[in-house]
Amino acid sequence: MLEIEIKEGNKLNQDELNIINYWRKKEFNSDTEWNETNKKSFYDDIVFLLKNGEEILAFGRLRPISVYKEEEKLDIWGIATIVSTERGKGYGKELMRAIRKYIEKNKKTSIGFCGEKNTVFYEKCGFGILKDGQKHFVYVDDSDKLQFEQGDVFYLKGYDNLADLLLKDDKSVFKHYVPHW
Q: Of 4, 1, 102, whose CA–CA distance to 49 is shortest?
């Protein structure tokens, strides 16, 4: 029986971390493991696990992110690390349904980045799409260097006006300090 388990990142057990790390490496070529040493990467996140018994079929997370429009700070959730262990079985859609429901209940703006090939999936899951929207989000690294990326944005509106700003002002830019959320 399929079940969604929602837990804080700091509550993931070692078996769950092992599976997540395996798929992060496979899907995203990630060379950093989630473990006790680098726990700040995921400890404050809200992790969604689609399980059949103890088997993880899909997972994703909402990551607390602060973005800045000039001097204004907006706290949002970054939608990140969306992985289905098998394609075409509806696991990703079921996972995104649970994430969307959680976001809507909490009314917090949530934003994810994706390549054009995945945009239709997120749209079918009920998320708004902003084509080439990544240009609005600039990562500022430790040396204050600005890094721009390309791709689409999928989002759900929250209590703030961030999504409305993006939709009405094509020149809006939000800085953030979290790489590849």
A: 4
10 Å CB burial of residue 126 (0-12, 13-18, 19+) is middle
pLDDT tens-digit readout, 64-90: 999 999 889 999 999 999 999 999 999
Q: Is 127 exposed, middle or buried, given 0-12, 13-18 or 19+ CB atoms closer than 10 A?
A: buried
Whole-structure pTM value: 0.93
Retrieve residue 126's tokens.
Answer: 């009920």
Domains defined along the chain, listed by start: 2-176 (3.40.630.30)
- Is there a contact between 81 and 60 (Cβ–Cβ < 8 Å)? yes
User: 36 is written with which tokens?
Assistant: 């006790």
Decide: helix, strand or coil at residue 9. Answer: helix
Q: Other CB atoms closer than 10 Å to residue 143's CB: what's the count?
A: 5
In this prediction, residue 161 carries a pLDDT of 80
